[in-house]
Amino acid sequence: MIHSLFLINHTGDIFLEKHWKSVIGRSVCDYFFEAREKAVEPENVPPVLQTPHHYLISIYRGKLFFLSVIQTEVPPLFVIEFLHRVADTIQDYFGECSEGVIKDNVVTVYELLEEMLDNGFPLATESNVLKEMIRPPTILRSVVNTLTGASNVGDTLPTGQLSNVPWRRVGVKYTNNEAYFDVIEEIDAILDKSGTTVFAEIQGVIEACVRLTGMPDLTLSFMNPRLLDDVSFHPCVRFKRWESERVLSFIPPDGNFTLMNYHVSSQNLVAIPVYVKQSISFFETGPCGRLDITIGPKQTMGKTVEGLMVTIHMPKAVLSANLTATQGTYTYDLATKVLVWDIGKLNPQKLPNLKGSLTTQAGTPKPEDNPSLNIDLKIQQLAISGLKVSRLDMYGEKYKPFKGVKYLTKAGKFQVRT
Amino acid sequence: MCDFPFFSLVCTGEIFELKAELNSDKKEKKKEAVKKVIASMTVGKDVSALFPDVVNCMQTDNLELKKLVYLYLMNYAKSQPDMAIMAVNTFVKDCEDPNPLIRALAVRTMGCIRVDKITEYLCEPLRKCLKDEDPYVRKTAAVCVAKLHDINAQLVEDQGFLDTLKDLISDSNPMVVANAVAALSEIAESHPNSNLLDLNPQTINKLLTALNECTEWGQIFILDCLANYTPRDDRESQSICERVTPRLSHANSAVVLSAVKVLMKFMEMLPKDLDYYGTLLKKLAPPLVTLLSAEPELQYVALRNINLIVQRRPEILKHEMKVFFVKYNDPIYVKLEKLDIMIRLASQANIAQVLAELKEYATEVDVDFVRKAVRAIGRCAIKVEQSAERCVSTLLDLIQTKVNYVVQEAIVVIKDIFRKYPNKYESVIATLCENLDSLDEPEARAAMIWIVGEYAERIDNADELLESFLEGFHDESTQVQLQLLTAIVKLFLKKPTETQELVQQVLSLATQDSDNPDLRDRGYIYWRLLSTDPVAAKEVVLAEKPLISEETDLIEPTLLEELICHIGTLASVYHKPPSAFVEGSRGVQHKRLPGSAGSGESADSPDTGSAAGVSEAPPAVIPSQGDLLGDLLNLDLTPPTTSGPPPAPSSGMQMGAMDLLGGGLDSLVGLLHAAMGAGFGAPPTAMPASFPPPVSGGLDDLFDLGGSVGMPMGAYSPPKSIWLPAMKAKGLEISGTFARRAGVIQMEMTLTNKAMSIMTDFAIQFNRNSFGLAPAGPLQVLTPVGPNQSIEVALPLSTVGPVMKMEPLTNLQVAVKNNIDVFYFSSQYPISMLFVEDGKMERQVFLATWKDIPNDNEAQFQIKDCHLNSDAASSKLQGSNVFTIAKRTVEGQDMLYQSMKLTNGIWVLAELRVQAGNPNYTVMSRLVFVLTCSGANHKDYKTESREV
Asked: What is the annotated signal peptide range for this record (chain A) (predicted)?
């Protein structure tokens, strides 16, 4: 099981360690630092490392490495999932997961880690349960605690811990009962030079924010559930009902949670909202090249494309860019060789264009690698797969809740090759 | 209030200040002080000096303070064991607290204090907590048993905690069950043979029930535990699969992968024609695809596992090629893994797409990735024959880019393509030669030189090209030097007239100026070959080379099976068996996929047929349940109306095979073992599925006899033994042996006359026997044998005689007649003499057959004290018509894959493992029986055992 955890910042300092069994010396991290050195970019450090006596499994989140040490055969996915859960919990508690925040709340973090694992076995990882045992810090509570001498550690057994619905505590009370669902879809796509789709899929997620009194039992149904053939659910969803009736039936956790993830991979269902006309070329003679990019709407289902942004990783030889944009602004970072063109809203009548010349280092050969364009965009009130919620019903409680569904489409890893 | 920036602490004088605060009367101040202590501790500062002061704060009713002190205790108790005893009393008291949270906390913390003295005091409270009314306490206590076991295993066993833990598997609360399973699994890991998790259908049912209700982590433990169970039959296996499938939709990827493991393993038992089997295959694809949209670290582990799954069951993901396309911002470790899987999935149907992608990758920035992409194009060419031409032209395009590392990499793979498709793409050589100058990596240079040498006759200026390399001969790496030497010798053999000087030059460079022994030796060998017999040299150097094939990068099948059982573990990430690297797994048990329950017909074949088939055999062997082959063959061969007519002798070979198999695999395996050993059979009562590894005997005898005196390799033949003592045969003594000489089986006998009178008129006859052995001609004893005279006779045998199953299988009943009387005796022949010379199976056929054979057709045994290395073993076995098809070296263990064929057409496949490193070499072998009876009926029979 998980033996120890080290938190390491981007400069390679260990700023927190926690051992669930015997103490393991920090020197074990040297193997990790070696791999870190070799990988150049922090993202490229291999997640599983072998050392003579231990295994190091790490994740990279928010410029921090969460490095766990294990000694026996443990499913690595279990460890990685757990580490992400630790990062999620810290984020959930303190609003962000960064070195500064962890250092400021070091004792709370330590207490949390102690509650999350016992001897390497996960103990309580549900944020609801944790919050009952260790209350998240708020300014108000700090003041009250200082005055009354009360503590922020709960002294009753968390109610959810052992019930059949461990994700929900009992005795929830709200004056405004509300349930909101956000259907968020991300398009992952690769388009080739000519604009044809090489690969496209949709990663969808339904985020819920449920503040309902008591023990409500919800049923969410879709207009077109056939779209969903590859899904994964929050543990609260009754899988049998889904199998037989294609509805989501569940007793929700209290607060924010991810109800389900889904994945639409069938190519014909994935609409590509924009097209990109681009040409980036470098001349054989002379240290310069040309760049010309135009973006236009393709399948937007009548909605407006917003937050449009193009990021280009230029070849190393490119020294500067002298461009003009008909809309938005562009920046070229010399150090990282990244060209960012922030466009904003896409106007179908007047297509945004970026055009101009690039200067390459004199004397170097024509760059070999083709830069690739990453597109960022947002479309409000549209789930690009066409998924629609038809209704939400509540059983088990008498009151009438406010209900709402929002849709949002974003670009995930949306890449155009040149 | 809690969150002061503790990091402002300075070390000097701090301890003193903290001490004062800890002893303060004010609760608040105390708590703040403990917090500061903890904060220092977490960043690695040594605050152990404060131990007594912190422990003094322990007796408090403030839960937070208590928890903080506990945190401190856990960290420092080890270094201050005497002080830690002070805390025991409080722990014991807390274990009686009315608040279950405090009880659980106390028992949990006590387990974390890794001090021997404390563990004694822990036993009583722990026992109570294991039976606590509150499940929260019980589940915490379950984990505590594992902790205690880690500190003092003996104590846990003596106190009977293990039994209590086993009882908890039947607990009413799913969380308690899950924790008990997790604790037991962890304990079991350090006690591989203790059979702690005794899985039976009842416990499995409990686990499956708990699976639905416990937390995600608990589900992982339970699924991993389920994966160790072997269902009794395909029906049980299906019902478990049905209950596990919903886990595939879990949000936690570890749960998904553990479920995939269980399904992949149990699927082996399902008959392939079952509808459910197809459904299950379809259900496996989406969750695997979903894993690839998770965080990159999760993706990496998932991809390593998918790599295994794709090799075992390519059908699952064959339509999902696109999800493995590499994205620009994937981390490099994900990119490389995706590439690997793309090649595994490449087929004629999708090759165009794959090639287009690979070509795209070859223009990316990351050099490592580009190189691998270029290599991948080459692998595609070798894997998908139809695409070879396309791949070659893609590679040529890439060479045109003139990007240095791309060109070099392309040349290396083109060399491989030439080796797979000789004489097909030579037109590209000209293009390759143009890039000669830009090659600076040894591998690329060596590859280019190889190409020039191999096709020297088609390259006009081959001599010039090679000469240009020769100039800097001593600066080249060994790889290039060796390659250059060979290439020039090839060139010389092809164009002897113009290149005399060149070859002289390279030979002298290699033999006189080099201090590399490999190079020198190779140089001398060539030199002598060329100077003594140029024709022979030509035959040796220009011999036709074996084609390479794509399976070179596949995981060896036995290992793959084992790894499939370890999906989701570290072993699956490293693609190594757990025994090879996991520390602390003292003697990990090898896991194996369960055998298939037969391909359809097996289960219901009527026993009557088989009974009829063997009715004449002396001990009527009714094939037992595991012995499906006999049933199968009877089913296939005997007419359905057989009510008892004994098989006529003329039914020959077919019946032979059937009878033979009717008798059971056990004897066949025994035979084979005997064949490799010296007439030592496995216990004939052994069941196919559970072979006790025979105690001794083995290949060593065969080896020693086969070649110890340096005589030409010949089939093994046991020393002569007395078959018929003189006492029983009125003075005629017959001793003899069997041998295979030049493809003919011979019975070599010494007839000794110990009687007073002359013996004449010898004749011999065999009873029907298992392999249809019969004298090929009359016994040639031409002269009368006088008293005290001996005569040597060799009787050639044929295998077309009447067949009857014997017990033991190789028993041969012989009748010898002379002028005095008729005498009967029986003898056993070594099965190795039945191995025929054409028993060498095609590599591909071997691989395919090996994979197809169900696991329960396997047996294995071990051969002890064999002082031979794998090559010597292989050549000795070859003398006995045991052919080595392939050899692989994994983890210092040589694996020889061998085939042999019996006279009646039965194929035997074997895997021989030779582990070096121990002065007493151990030879392990695994046998596979493939039977092809009269062409029409083809059933596989395979037996296996493993290293002990």
From this structure: none
The span from the CA of B459 to the CA of B468, in Å, is 15
Length of chain A, in residues:
418
State the average pLDDT for chain A.
85
pTM greater than 0.90: no
Select the residue from B71, B249, B253 to test the A interface by mutation, using most A Cβ atoms within 10 A: B249
Q: What is the largest CA-CA distance in chain B?
A: 122
DSSP secondary structure of B849-872? HHHHS-GGGEEEEEE-S----HHH
What is the residue type of B653?
Answer: M
Contact B186 A72 (CB under 8 A): yes
What span, in angstroms and rounded, lies between the C-alpha atoms of A190 and A415? 5
Contacts of A17 in chain B (CB under 8 A): 42-44
Q: Which residue of A lies nearest to B335 if distances are taken between CA atoms? A: A44
3-state SS assignment for residue B227: coil
Task: Residue A117: list chain B partners with CB under 8 A.
Answer: none
| Interface residue A84 vs chain B (CB under 8 A) | yes
| SS3 assignment, position B133 | coil
A24 touches chain B (CB under 8 A): no
The letter for the amino acid at B562 is E
Return the amino acid letter for B472: G
Report how far residue B326's alpha carbon sits from residue B165's, in angstroms, rounded to the nearest whole number.
48
Counting residues of chain A whose pLDDT is more than 90, the rounded percentage is: 28
Q: φ and ψ at B459, to 5 degrees?
A: -105, 115
Is B700:B639 a contact under the CB 8 Å cutoff?
no
Interval B711-736: pLDDT, tens: 334 456 677 788 888 777 778 888 88
Cβ distance of B360 and A157 shorter than 8 Å: no
Its ipTM equals 0.79
The yes-or-no verdict on residue B267 having pLDDT over 60 is yes
Task: End-to-end CA distance of chain A: give it in Å, rounded.
Answer: 47
Model confidence over A7-39: pLDDT tens digits? Answer: 999 888 998 888 888 788 888 899 999 999 988
What percent helix, strand, coil does chain B show, rounded to 5? 55, 10, 35
Choices 3.40.718.10, 3.40.50.620, 3.40.190.10, 3.30.310.10: CATH for B835-928: 3.30.310.10
Going along chain A from its start, the domains and CATH numbers come out as 2-148 (3.30.450.60), 178-270+384-416 (2.60.40.1170), 274-380 (2.60.40.1170)
- Site from B293, B304, B308, B572 to mutate, A interface, most A CB atoms within 10 angstroms: B293
Using a CB-CB cut-off of 8 Å, the residues of chain A touching B148 are: none
* B907-934 per-position pLDDT tens digit: 777 777 776 655 444 444 445 444 433 3
- Whether residue B257 and residue A19 make contact (CB cut-off 8 A), yes or no, is no
Nearest-angstrom CA–CA distance, B755 and B726: 8
Count contacts between A and B (CB, < 8 Å). 264
B251:A261 CB<8 A: yes
Q: How far is B628 from chain A (nearest CA, A)?
A: 38
Residues within 8 A of B (CB atoms), A 365-404 only: 368-370, 372, 374
A242: pLDDT strictly greater than 60: yes
Burial A48-63 (b: 16+ CB within 10 A, else e): bbeeeebbbbbbbbee
- Alpha-carbon distance of B426 to B375, in angstroms, equals 19
Residue B676, CA distances (Å) to B654, B706, B915 in order: 26, 11, 18
Of the candidates A356, A355, A369, the residue with the CA atom closest to the CA atom of residue A314 = A369
Please state the three-class secondary structure of B37-104 as a single string.
HHHHHHCCCCCHHHHHHHHHCCCCCCHHHHHHHHHHHHHHHHHCHHHHHHHHHHHHHHCCCCCHHHHH
β A178-191/A402-417 pair status: parallel
